[in-house]
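ping. complex inputs:
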Amino acid sequence: KQEVTQIPAALSVPEGENLVLNCSFTDSAIYNLQWFRQDPGKGLTSLLLIQSSQREQTSGRLNASLDKSSGRSTLYIAASQPGDSATYLCAVTGDSWGKLQFGAGTQVVVTP
Amino acid sequence: GAGVSQSPSNKVTEKGKDVELRCDPISGHTALYWYRQRLGQGLEFLIYFQGNSAPDKSGLPSDRFSAERTGESVSTLTIQRTQQEDSAVYLCASSSVEVKRGKQFFGPGTRLTVL
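pong. complex structure:
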């Protein structure tokens, strides 16, 4: 059974620092991995999707890496801003149906 | 519409009552998913619809939970005889069949509270 773990559970940094969020999964047979952002009272916003054949994806200040063989992904957020405060979730799909298996999330607070 | 919509946004019910939660997917998205997020826990997959294929119900926690979808439109998640442990945020997502491993777009969720 696939298990997805996110460390740390919570993180607080001053504005301007880089953020490093970690995600690990136990079964390396994944189709893709996604990083989401969740704001209170709102749904999930997809940030980055990495196919199993890819090593990384970048979007603006966000960069996500994937090491499928070791079951790890890292989300980097450069030059953090207070608006980056949210819960970040990673999720993997184990088959072509695309149902997602989520980690518990990392709650990020960026202080001005 | 522009995104996935869900209704109601909040629902408070008494233990033992039935509830219906609604999801309107993005137009043209043939795949529709229901997930549940209980307080302090990660999201759990509940059920998945793909076009006219039989739904994948492997995540439904008990036979009190059921869902329907007509064609490629609205879906309704029904919880019968609600229990306090059913309290959670219920999230719906949709995606395009052309990209089975593509992004899922989520709605804002329905917060269900069972008293």
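The interface with chain B takes residues 4, 31-32, 34, 36, 41-46, 49, 51, 89, 91, 93, 96-105 of chain A (CB under 8 Å).
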